[in-house]
Amino acid sequence: MTGSLDTVLEGLRAAAEPTRLRLLALCAEGELTVSELVQIVGQSQPRVSRHLKLLCEAGLLARLPEGSWVFYRLAGGGGRANGLVRQIADLIPRDDAQLARDRERLAAVRAARAERAAAYFRANAENWDSIRALHVDDAEVDKRLLAALPPARVAGELLDVGTGTGKVLELFGKRGVKVTGVDASLDMLRVARANLAKAGLADAHVRQADMYRLPFDAHAFAAVVFHQVLHFADDPAAAIAEAARVLAPGGRLVVVDFAPHDLDELRARHAHRRLGFADAEIRGWLAAAKLAPAEPVALPGNKLTVCLWAADRPNA
To answer: What is the pTM of this model?
Structure first.
């Protein structure tokens, strides 16, 4: 544990109240909104919000606004009381009757969230399925992505830009990698949260963010992934440059996207802005971002070829 004595005392005082301990125990299970916490603990929103404010001010919880919603989770990423909040959460007894009831209500909240996400996915599943039929099997793409980012490359944290349904977060999170995903779409983030909860990845986090203005410090991530995202971007070069900014020295950036193609219906039906990318184009953007491109991998499919472009940030 690091920090001053005053920091520790502030954190302990904030946690030393029954409802706030319940809120910490719930947030230790994953990100939750104010309305979800209100539903679980059975108290008024103003009262719960006051408790949450105190926990955030003490550095025990992180507050993440997302559109009209706000998510709460245990403080992390260098938060001043991160070590303390983990120790407090570990001390909370799981066999307490009140906390057991809270976990039952949390399970019901997650089930409702998953059903809402599933309904959204069902309404839009045709879009993804019709594209998948045009290119190589997802399992082969996943295999190559894992090969491009072996354990030594993701010893720190991985950022998935345009995370969508959270597929890349699941792929690496299940292998013990610390993962964070960002997406501009609130609907897709809700799908991702449901998928991550179902996979039991409580430490995998997602948040709403603009790929051109990532809300992270420079050199924050050991790896950054763009998985089938850049063809939606207005300015792919700027997105790559911003991703390079948050990539740590020795880190690796991987772009997974289509090679050039002539399926113009993807623009009308699926909002693709670009019909794939030439190798020289991607490599030029990577080099302009002061990254060293590796040899690309091409995976031909039915009508579309998926390519993986990797590039490294030099250590010096």
So the answer is: 0.78
